Amino acid sequence: MQKLLYLLPLCLILLVHADSHAQSTAKYNPIDSLPVRGFCIGAPSVKGLDEFITFIHKELAPRHINTLVLRIDYNYQYKSHPELSDPGALSKQDVAKLVQACKEERIHLIPQVNLLGHQSWAGSTGTLLRVYPAFDENPEVKMPANYVWPNEDGLYCKSYCPLHPEVHKVVFDVMDEICDAFETDAFHAGMDEVFYIGNDKCPRCGGRDKAELFAGEVRTLRNHLAEKHRELWIWGDRLLDGKTTGMGMWEASMNNTHRAVDLIPKDVMICDWHYDRPDKTPVYFAMKGLRVITCPWRKPQVAVAQLDDLDHFRRDATKELKPMYQGMMQTVWSPAEAFLDEYYGRKTNAKDGENTSTNCFKAVFK
Description:
Blueprint: H1 2-25, E1 36-42, H2 49-60, E2 67-71, H3 92-104, E3 108-115, E4 120-121, E5 124-125, H4 127-131, H5 167-182, E6 186-190, H6 210-226, E7 231-235, H7 242-245, E8 269-273, H8 281-287, E9 292-295, H9 300-316, E10 325-331, H10 336-343, H11 357-364
Helix pairs in contact: 2-3, 9-11
C-alpha cells in the first residue's frame, strides 16, 4: 500500500506530461484564436433559404464561424420603402429563420446594403437610383446598352450623391428596418470601389475634397447607427493610396479618398480585402487606430498566407495593437445558390482549377 501511495504522484506527473505533450504536438490552427471568424455571401433567395440554413448548421457552425455577413441590398420586403424591394424578395418571416439559425449557433448575423457606391452594375442601374434617379451623383452618364470596361465615361458603378438633401431619409429607413429584422447590433455599408464621388458638375459636391466627402458619408452613417448602439462596418479599399502603394484603382483609391482614413471615427470596422496578394495593409489600419478584418476570396495560397500574417501580427503586436487585428472573413461573390452548387460538387468550372471560393474557404476554415 505504501508503495502504491509512493507511485501515485509519479503517475500523476507522467499523465500531466503526456497530456501537455499531446497538446503541444497537436496541429496549431491560428484561425481558432481570432475574435472574428467570418463568412460573407449574398443572401439566399426564398427558394434557396432552407438549404442555406442547413449550410449554417452543418458547415459554418462546425468550422467555428462566429460572424455571418449577408449582402441583402433590396432582397427584402421593406415596409418603410416597398418601392425598393426586389421581386420575390425575402419576407420578415424568412429573415427570422436566418436569425434563429444564427442564434442557435451563436453566430453574429450582420446585413449589408451597398451604400454610396455600387449603385449600378454593368449596363443596369441599381434599385435605389432606378427608383430615385435624383440621387444620382453623375446623372449625365447614361447606362450603355452594351457595357465594356474601360469606357470613355470611366463608368464602373454609379454612386449616389452623399449631399443630396433627401437621400439619407431613405437610406436611414432602409438601414433601420433591415437591422431591426436581423436583430443585430452591426451593419455593413459596403462603400467599396467608389469611382464616382465629388462630381464637378454636381451642384452640391462640385469642387469639394473627395476625402472629406467620403469621410463625411462614413460619419453620417456611423452616427445614425450609433444612436441605436449599432456599429458600422465598411470595406477598406477607399482608405488606401492606390498610387503610392501600387495597388491601383480597385483594391485602393486613385481619386484621393485615401486621406479619409484619418477623418473617420475609430470605431468603424474595416474589412480589408486583397484577393491576389497577401498585402500587409492590416498593419496600416491597425496603426491608424482602426480595427481590421482580413478578407480573402478565391485563392487558397493567398488566403493561407494572409492567415499566417495575421497570426504573426497578433503575436508580435503590442497590447495596444493586438485588439485591432480582429480576424478573417471569407468573401463569396457569387449568389448563395451558385456557391452551394460549387461547395457540394453539383457544378464545377474546370477553368478555375483550385482557385475557387470553396477551396479558399476550406483552406482557411478547416
